[in-house]
Each structure stands twice: as C-alpha cells, then as structure tokens.
Description:
A: alpha+beta; three-stranded antiparallel beta sheet; 30 helices; 18 strands; about 45% helix; B: 9 strands
Amino acid sequence: xxFARISQQISIVKTPQLRPLxxxxxxxxxxxxxxxxxxxxxxxxxxxxxxxxxxxxxxxSHIGSLMENDQSPTLLGLKAPVKWLVIQxxxxxxxxxxxLMAAAPxxxxxxxxxxxHCLECHDADSEKGGLNLEKIDYAMSGRAxxxxxxxxxDRIENGEMPPPKQAxxxxxxxxxxxxxxxxxxxxxxxxxxEVVLRRLNRIEYQNTIRELLAVExxxxxxxxxxxxxxxxxxxxxxxAVSTEQMQAYLAAARRAINAAIVTGERPKTETxxxxxxxxxxxxxxxxxxxxxxGRVVIFTSSDNSSYSKISTRDRRIPVRGRxxxxxxxxxxxxxxxxxxxxxxxxxxxxxxxxxxxxYYEVSAEPKxxxxxxxxxxxxxxxxxALGLPTYxxxxxxxxxxxxxxxxxxxxxPLIEQWPPESHxxxxxxxxLKQGTLDDxxxxxxxxxxxxxRRPAAExxxxxFVTLTRxxxxxxxxxxxxxxxxxxxxLCSPNFLYLREDPLxxxxxITEWELASRLSYFLWSGPxxxxxxxxxxxxxxxxxxxxxxxxxxxxxxxxSEALVKQFTGQWLDLRKLDDTTPDQKxxxxxxxxxxxxLLWESEGYFREMLKSDLPITDFxxxxxxxxxxxxxxxxxxxxxxxxxLRKVSLPADSVRGGVLTQxxxxxVTANGTTTSPVLRGVWVLENILxxxxxxxxxxxxxxxxxxxxxxxxxxQLDKHRSSESCNVCHQKIDPPGFALESFDPxxxxxxxxxxxxxxxxxxxxxxxxKGAPVDSSGVTSTGExxxxxxxxxxxxxxxxxxxxxxxxxKLLSYALGREMGFSDxxxxxxxxxxxxxxxxxxxxxxxxxxxxxxxxxR
Amino acid sequence: xxxxxRRTFLRGSGVTLALPLLDAMLPQGRAATTAAAMPxxxxxxxxxxxxxxxxxxxxxxxxxxxxxxRYLQPGAALRQDFTVFSGTSHPSVDGGHSAEKSFLTAAPFxxxxxxxxxxxxxxxxxxxxxxxxxxASLTLGEKTLSWSANGxxxxxEQSPAKVFTRLFLTGSPTEVAARQRxxxxxxxxxxxxxxxxxxxxxxxxxxxxxxxxxxFTAIRETEKQLTKTAxxxxxxxxxxxxxPPGEISSLDLVxxxxxxxxxxxxxxxxxxxxxxxxxxxxxxxxxxxxxxxxGYHGLSHHGKNPDMLRQLxxxxxxxxxxxFNFLTSLKSAxxxxxxxxxxxxxxxxxxxxLTTNLPILLAGGGYKHGQHLAFDARxxxxxxxxxxxxxxxxxVETDKFASSTGTMRGLEQV
Lengths: 857, 414
C-alpha cells in the first residue's frame, strides 16, 4: 500500500507540471494559426486556453450564468455564448484553411516526426505496445488503419506520446504533424462512414411485423441473434445476411402471414374458474401450504423458478388468444406488503415456454387482480411469491408470513372484432373462397407500399402479383396464392433493408427515408401513417415539423423501444442476468431486487427523457428512481411499495447518476468479485468516450490470486509502475478504484467479504469481514480523490467529454453506423447546440434529429 | 455397420431416453445396406467456453507414455482413442470471452470493435461434404460456434427436443403434403425476391451493392437448400423408437450436456448429418451439481481461492465425465473410428481470461492416438494446423485454414 501512495504522489507532481500544455492552447496564446483543434473532444482544454486569452470563464459556469441571470462578460459587444460560437466559427474556418494547406505532405512530415520521436520504441524490432510505425499505411485505407491513425492523432494531441519521460517534440513539430494527419485522416475516414444498406435487426423486424400486420409474434426462436458493432446491434455493417438467415426470414414471414389471416368460425369466449387446491392438498398436512378464506397460501419463494404448484394447470386455455385472469390475493401473517409474480407457461410443444406477466404488490387486505395476456394454446398461469425464505422448516406454534392466492376466473379468448384487425386490415370482409387475381392485385397494391415504407413502383407491385398468379395457376387456392404473394413481399430486400438510394445532386436523404430513420431511431419500428403522410407532402424535413414529430413520437408508448434498446446496450443492461451473485456472500440478492435493478436504470433514462433533465444527471444527481426494495438495498429510508418513483437523495448519499446504480455495478462485476480494471474500462468507454485498446499482444494478463496478502490494488499499482502499462492504466484504474466501494450486486461496502470455510469436508463456513475497502486514488489529470463522491465531482468537471460521448453513442444508434474521426465536428456541434439549450436529454435527441448528419447519407 | 446390442446402447444413452429401438440395432434395413460402402467420415466440435483448470487438464509428461491427468482419468479406457494437445492456440485471437466466436474460425482479434468473423471449420466442411446428408450440419448449444462465409452467426439450437423433432419426427401425411407445397412455394418466392433485388441493385451505391451481394448469395443458397430439402422430404426420416427428450433445465449443466450428447450420437448414427458443433451450455448459472453453490462463470474467476477451485473442479470433472461417456457411446456404436471429436476451449485459463495454451483434445476419426503432443507454452503452435488435418482426414483437399501454417505436427493418420 505504501508503494502505491508514493507512486501516486509522484504522478500528482509530474502530471500538471511536466506535461507540456496541449499544443493548441499554446498556439492560441501565441496567436499562431491553430490547426483544426475543434475536431476533438477535450473541449475543456480549448476552453480554458480560450478563457485565458479572451478572459472568459470556463464553458460550464459560463453557460450556467446565461441560464441563471445572464450576466456573462461580453467580447466585441457579444454575449458570451454567441461569442463562443463566433470563436468556434473562426477556428473551424482557420482550421479548414490550414487543413488545405497541410494536405499534401503527410508522408514526409510524419516520417520525419516518427523518426525523431517514435521509432525508438515503435519500430519493427521493438514494436512496443504492438505498434510498428515502419509498416504503417500512409494511404490509411481500411477501418483498421483509420482507427490506428486516430489513436496516434489523439495520443500526440493529448501529449500522451511520446511519454513524459522522453524528450518532447517542440510545439511547432507537434503542430505540423497534427496538421498533416488531420485532413488526410478526415478524408480517409469519411469514405468509410456512409450509412450502409442496413437490414432490420431482430427487434426491428418484430416491431415492423406487429405494426404492419397487427399480429403479436415472437421470432426469437427463428431469427439468429444480431451481432453488435461499435456497441449497437442496429449497425448496418454488422447486420449481414446468410443463407440460414434467409431461410429464417422465409419461415418468419410465413408465420406472420399465417397468423394474420384468420378464417373460420369466431371462437367462443368462455369464462371458467380454476383453483390449485387439488395439486397442493397433499401438502396441507406438513404445513408447506395452507388454505385460508379459499386462498392457497405459500410460505416460500423460489426465485427464477419455472414451476409452481399454485397455478391454473388444472384447466388450460383451449386456443391461442388474449385472456383475462381475475383472482384475489392477500398476504398472510406478514408484517408488511409482499410481492408476487405471475408467469404464463405454455406446455403445448415438446418444451415449455414461459412469459413473465408482471410483478405485483400484495397487502393483508384481500385485493382482486386482473391480468390480460396473449397466450399460446394449452397455457396456464403460475404464481410465485417473492421475498419469502427459499427453504422453511416450520416449527409448531409459530406463524410464518405467506401469500395467498384465490381461485382464478379465466375469460377468453377476448375478441374485439371478428375476423380480427390483422385480417380485416388487408382483406376487409371479403370471402377468401371467392377471391380472384384482381382481388390479389388490389390487396398487393396497398400492401406493398406500406411494407416498403414508401410509394411502390408499378413494376414492384407487378412482381408480387405475378408471384401470386404463378401459385394460383399451379392449382392452389386463392388463399394459398395470396399468402405466397404476401410472404414474398416480406422477404423482399425492400422490406428487410432500410433502403436509401443515392441521388445525383444531393447527399440528403428523401422524405420517406427520413421518416424511416426517425421511426427506427425513436421506435425501433416502421413509420406510422402520420409520418408517411408528412413525407408524402414533403413536410417532414421542415425543422418545425420534425421537432413536433419528435415530441409526438417520444410521447408515444412505442418510444419505450428507445429506452430499452439504447440503455440495454449503452449501459449493458442486456447483460444484467449474465452472472448469478454468490448466494453465500450476497444472500439478500433476490428476484425482486434483480428486476428492480433493471427498472431503476431504465426508469432513470425514461425520467431524464420525459423531463428533459440535463445529461450531467447521468454523472451525478440528487435524485434517483427507486422502489422499496432498491431503497432498502441502498439504505435510503422512507420508500414504500414496489412501484418505481422519483426520490430525492439525502445530501450525503453515494448514489445519484448511473455509475452508482446497482445494475451498472452488477454488469461490471462477475457475481463474486469486482475488478477495478473492468469497471474502469467501462467508465472510460461509456462515460468518457475513450476507447481502450486491449492489452498489447504477448502481455500476460495478471492471473488473479487472492490468497496472498497482495490485493488487486497492489497488483495494479505494480502494473502501473511499468511505463507501457501505465499509459492506459493511469486512466483505467482510477474510476475502478472509486467504484471499489460497491460490491458485485451494487451494495455499498466498507470491507470486502470473504467466505471462511470452517469445515472442509462439508464445506461449511461463514461470511467474514475481509480487508477494508480503499476507494481513493489519483485521477489521470492528477487530482487525488478519496471516494466516489470526489470522483463524481471530477467527472462533472469533465461533463463536456461525457456529452461528446453520449452524443456519439446516440448518433451512432440513430444512424446505425459507427462514428469516426470525420464525425467529430458534427458531434461537437450537436453537443454544443444541446448545451446552449440547457443540455437536456430530450433536447439532445432533438438536436440529433435536426442535425445535418441525420439527414445525409 | 455392426448391429448394436440394445444393452450397449442403453449404457451410453443416459436418462432422458427409455427403451430405444434404433435402425442401427436392426440386423437388416437401411443401415445394413450402406455397410458395404466406405463408412462416412464425420466431425464433431465441442467448446467449453470457460476452459479447464490447466493443472488438472494437461498431463505432466509428453509423448505416448504420459500419465493421465486428473481430468483425463475418466477416459482411461479410451486412452488409445484420443490425443491431448498443449501449447497451442489461435494466432492473434485474444479478447477474453469474445474468443468464443473465433474458436472454430480462428479469426483474429475477436474483441476488437472492427471485428468481422470468418467461416468456421464446420461450415467450411459443410460446403464440401454437407450435401451428402439430410442436414448439412447441426449447430447446438446456447452460443453458436458456427459462422457462415460472410461471418454471420448461424443460430444455435438450444433445445435437444426441438432438434429431435427436426431430425426424426415426420408429421402426419397432411403435414408432409403441406410441407411439400411450402417448399415449392418457397422456391417461387425466392425467384421473385431475386428479381426484386436485381431491380434494387441498379439503384444503390457501391457500398450497398456489397451488402446486396450477400443477399443474392443468400437467396441462391436458399433456393438450393429448398430443392435439397424437397428431395430429402421424399425420403422418410429415420425412425428411432426413442422417447423425445423432455425439457432440460438450464441449471442442469450435466443433464444439458448429456441431452445434447445423446442427440448428437443419434444424429450421427442415423447419418442425418456428419458435422455437429456444440457451443456453451449455461455458464451464467449455478449448476445443479452436489457441492457446487456458486455460479459457474463466477467460479471460473476463482483467484486461486481454494473453496472456489474445489467447486470449479467438480463442474469440470462432471463435464469431462459426460464427454468421455459420449466417446464411449460412439465407440460402442462403432462410430468413433470414423468420427473426429474435438473438445476444447477458447480460454486457456478462465481466471486470467487468457486465450493462449488452450486445452485441446482430439478423439477418434482414425489417427494414431494415445499421446500428449506438447508445444511451446510461451510461443504457441498454431491451432488452425489441427483444423487442416481434420479437413484432410474428412477427405477435403486443402492445405490451409485461416492462419494455419501446415498440418498438425506429430499427428498421424491410421
């Protein structure tokens, strides 16, 4: 530990003093023409330099002052923010000019610079960090090369390379090399940043089928999982098509059309009542179940189980359809309210499938619950109590808390109209037995444009009419033939891909393409009639219309897709259940907490989006979205009930922001232990927007050994004393250290816990307190911190990096492509524009949709 | 093929199957008629994504006189039927758990943002020999090991029950007829879609054309596939009088392995396919094995904690036992000599997330087995060389797969 402290102190001394000022800052001070400095995120440094030059306070407080009372200083008679824009324009203008000037001589100037400052370590012999500058590609062709050049650019620009110990290039050298790389790299990068023809991913496919055909179907068993690129699974480059995929699309289209076309008699809606007494009766005697006021009471919980004796298994639903389940439930001998969950389980095929039908709160006062769900034939619902012991040996004369469930009244299938909407939408009330080719043509004429999300050419419709005719002429019925025609439409690349055709005179996309971009961004689904109508009238691309549509769409229930898909990937919430916490060390982690973690993080994003809260609230905030279970987990008093609500945090709380949400802390741990490296990398990549290259080849990762006295921290401190490791680890480790105060399930801890075996043979033992947690460290910019609260302050001071990072991620998600070096200017513009409007999350979405990038190919 | 004794069969078939009566057990019939011809050669790949504790997997000694390591003990009777390899890995494949994607492809840097996968060994082989069976290949498990030529994941089938249906259940005559019609229709649909795509091709940009090319390939291949399926549907599916496997809980790690192994053996025995991959099975969970209380994934990050190591060992031992039982069942069914079975992991050491020194074992298939081929632990020997050997053993003429530099040194065919 002592070793660690010393090395950290050294870095405090050396970081701010020995490292040269960032190149552009000096340039500005000396009044020399700067190179294109605004293309890079750490705006704070530019700002502070500009601040010194123009005597403006840093950006944050500066905008803040405008918001509050607008007493900002003026430059050239302009208000500060306007002035800021002027400066930006000036810099971009000058930058572009200098870019043009420096465009030609990349190789000689880079060669010269590398020779002098880099090759000692990065030549073919040493290849330090896996980088050999002797074989670097000056044409920068391909993504791997542009990524490499971007890293080189950033390292030089940030003064990270050559490392501080080595002789530093003089200012002009640094300037020259950056000015030489910048235009070449922008150009090289740009050529690979078109939005590529992107097929619908699995979620988008499912939503598109639902909206088009009015059928609720699950395709997860048919369609392969989509690959991610750049962190999102709607990335056009990663969304390839294989033979298996095509066959799956054929099968999926068949499933969809078969479900949509409904012929035959209207099924009879029935009401019947089922109880589970028959099944639990044998257990009344030993007390594991009891019967109170007609309710079957259970005293144990079986988290994440797929089988419960309390169910409607005795009479399953006859056909697939929507059903209503009514039942009474109440707690029994419980001090406070309890929870339960219901699962809809199908036993029709060879294997069972389970669908969660929600989590409910139950009190001592019997209450009637009503659940509606779409279930497969032969399904039953099952009940599971939450928060009770998983194992119970009852002692006589003692009462135990439990949850009682009454008999279930089942009504269904619930039918609003017959034939259902899915059938009537495309077939109306026609008799399919009498259908002719003319009918087929009429149906396809309206179906094809809707499926293609744009007007269809005559030839396009004709193709599917021909298909229908071919099948019809081979002797099939009208119904079979039109099915084939419709299935064909759903297998067409015009349906499966978000098609954007290049236009001769413009790089802008069409109104129709804009409608699709917008709806797949905010809804993960197809544009609705309103959007298509606006596109047809050439209205959609008007800023005011676009803005109104974004508001309308964010207000629609379908925008839940944005919350779920974006947070699922940005915050890694999809990985929430990948690990099972060690039940011995973390016995309090139960199913209700597990689902609440997800509710909290999604709820937080939803609340920010709804109320347009400043995105800095992702870093730290004085509020949280909690229910009773979460509040208990966090030690926050006064929150009762299962429902999530906005809660003010106590002043000294360590919570607030996403980093200290238990979901995040769980996905960055492995269930048993935490690793500062994993958490640190997570923070760098998802909060600060710095990519962390994997350890160079031939570096053995440390094999964790927790037996000795050496803590992970001590191991890492050693690690950081090596120059080549330290380059990355001085950035990676500090956020990880700050988060050490949280265990693998996100609870606050002051000590590590250890399972101490007392009986080896039986593996008996107990949890004992281990070493105290040290959550202090020194940030990569040299500021010491003692705990997570300090660290969040440091993050808040870097909120511009975060807004660049979040903007990049949202834009990447919105366009379905990765952002690169050539997108930096656009990202900065969006972030700046958002900041000027209060920095709210909703405003950021608006700024993205209104940006040039969103409307260009 | 020698008729199987019912007793031998039962011994290997595990609990989910009751009183089976297979074609292969009959002295005559389809199985017997093919016996005169060259027995088909097959390949099975199994990946255990969290790897094995190296000390318990790798033998101490090398060559033919090595002593069985702890994990190889349950395979003592099969000693001459397998070779264990140490000091091998895929060149430039790093990225911790992401290396799972490259286990059968050897595509470099699977953890990189720009990573694009390449074809997996089984799919490469399926392109060569897949047309000989009803199913070109089977991809089983929770995570796929199989990747198509353009790097698309081939969905893995998690449920042995579903695969069983595809392999052996024929359906009623009405269903069969409907299926035939569907296949025919499918081909008409593909024709139309192809036309539609051609019309689109004329309008899109160069980058998009590349994407569309993938689509064309997929349509053409799908058409071929539909034709093949239509032809196969004229041939009745093999009849097995085995009860279809039931639902196996994902917590039952050993049961899941066994269920898949049983199914794999059935698929090979009935010559439904000659290529099978089995990817990971439930490592996020706490497996139901006596003495194991922690999640499998968590245990793999044991940090040398003795209690965790003990539990991890129980899981790994159960895995190896199930694997050797599978080999035994193949041997009893006279399949092992013509079936190459690869068992390995994308991680050399789960605790450190290392992707070097992979635990690799190759059984059966017609090699001079019975040895421990040890290579340099610091400077690993390229594992893709083994893939070239495997391909050649299947009669595929190639001398290259991914980053291979030759065939597997020291491994000789019988």
